[in-house]
Amino acid sequence: MDYQQGDTIVAIATPPGEGGVGIVRLSGPRALSIATALCGGSAAEPLTPRYAHFRRFYTRDGRVIDHGITLYFPAPHSYTGETVVELQGHGSPLALASLLAEAIARGARAARAGEFSERAFLNGRLDLAQAEAVADLIHARSDAQARAAAASLEGAFSQAVDGIHRQLLHLLALAEAGLDFSEEDLGDTHEQAIADGLTQLGRQVARLLRQAEQGARLARGGRVVLAGRPNVGKSSLMNALARRESAIVTAIPGTTRDLLREEILLNGLPVELIDTAGLRQAGDAVEAEGIARARHILHSAQLILLVADASVGWQAEDEVILRDLPEGPRRIIWNKSDLVSAPPPTPAGEVAVALSAQTGAGLDALHQSLIEALGMHGDNGPFSARRRHVEALEDSLDQLNTAKDLHSVGGVPELVAQSLREAAGALARVTGQIDAEDILGEIFSRFCIGK
């Protein structure tokens, strides 16, 4: 992180390409003076805070670049907590590039990716979980993702964390009271209050952890890979799930040579479907490369669908493929089940779904199986979350359980208090109250320029 307090930053805040409106955003101590110069200098009427002004935008030699709306937000009542000015012109890439260059020539610095949101965090306008929710909302690919990200941006996740954190600090104060007055008998009531508090907080953190895990799954989406022998109907199943002719389907083994990708929605979760080359001894170099890619992508799958042909039953080649699959969730898919009266026996310990990609029979059952396997059954969760949030909550819960175990056996009070401090610190990492320095650069570097 390289945050310089005196810098004024500038960026194009709208997506690349042509559009009806294009926005150049300035933030920092010189934002107003630079924007005023761009709008004609002292000859122009002063900008009124939070008022839409029609202005022409000029180069330093007086040429008009564009005209549009100028909005002025004085510090600290702005997105970043600094003085912010937005120049809203036409969505011309050339005009926007000219405005950006003029702002830089007048003393602004080109913003880094995510620097506006980074400054909002550093100036107390957003906590870290809310700042991450901004990126989640921008990158949302489904209504469920957008709703969850908006809830986090509004503070649903942060408020839950802060509420537990306050209770934890109160419990820590009780535990430390026993240290401060160790020579006095505070009584059974004091120890029972600590025991009850540990139990209650453990339940609350566990519940929040489940919600965060659901929110993290929703935020990152899912990846499902189809695997199996040639000609078992993987491409037909891909087309049936995608509801369009995405993959070429023929009776010729080895038709699919490369990875084919489609995205579908399952219970609000964006799921990337990947069709792969049939796994067998390759017939040529091109097919060999496709098979190598298929085996590689299997290791990144959240769920593998091993497709088998119900009309011929479980084959020795199917067994070899099953044995070589990486560890993780998987389903046996008995395709072409419309050709038999009943699906063949499934290998022991495996979960199977019988269907026909040709007729569509059994696809609803597959959808439900996918939802359960990807952990998206029931509510999608009240907010978006990240893997680091889940890890912080896991750490907090572990420390609470340690404190509870120590307290229940009359352990050293100092160790109980230390575990409570660690639990509180882990919670504080979620919203960036402590230990944020090491992760800020990683988090904000994934934002788009201008946000």
TrEMBL record:
Keyword tRNA processing tagged: yes
Subcellular location: Cytoplasm
Protein name in UniProt: tRNA modification GTPase MnmE
Domain annotation TrmE-type G: ranges: 221-375
GO molecular function: GTP binding; GTPase activity; metal ion binding
Function: Exhibits a very high intrinsic GTPase hydrolysis rate. Involved in the addition of a carboxymethylaminomethyl (cmnm) group at the wobble position (U34) of certain tRNAs, forming tRNA-cmnm(5)s(2)U34.
EC numbers, comma separated: 3.6.-.-
Binding site for K(+): N231, T250, I252, T255
Sequence similarity: Belongs to the TRAFAC class TrmE-Era-EngA-EngB-Septin-like GTPase superfamily. TrmE GTPase family.
Keywords for this protein: Cytoplasm, GTP-binding, Hydrolase, Magnesium, Metal-binding, Nucleotide-binding, Potassium, tRNA processing
Stored InterPro entries: G_TrmE, GTP-bd, GTP-bd_TrmE_N, GTPase_MnmE, MnmE_dom2, MnmE_helical, P-loop_NTPase, Small_GTP-bd
Residues given in the record as GTP binding sites: 231-236, 250-256, 275-278
Annotated binding of (6S)-5-formyl-5,6,7,8-tetrahydrofolate, by residue: R25, E86, R125, K451
Binding of Mg(2+), residues: S235, T256
Biological process (GO), any one: tRNA wobble uridine modification
Cofactor binding remark: Binds 1 potassium ion per subunit.
Cofactor: K(+)
GO cellular component: cytosol
HAMAP family noted in UniProt: GTPase_MnmE (MF_00379)
Quaternary structure (record): Homodimer. Heterotetramer of two MnmE and two MnmG subunits.
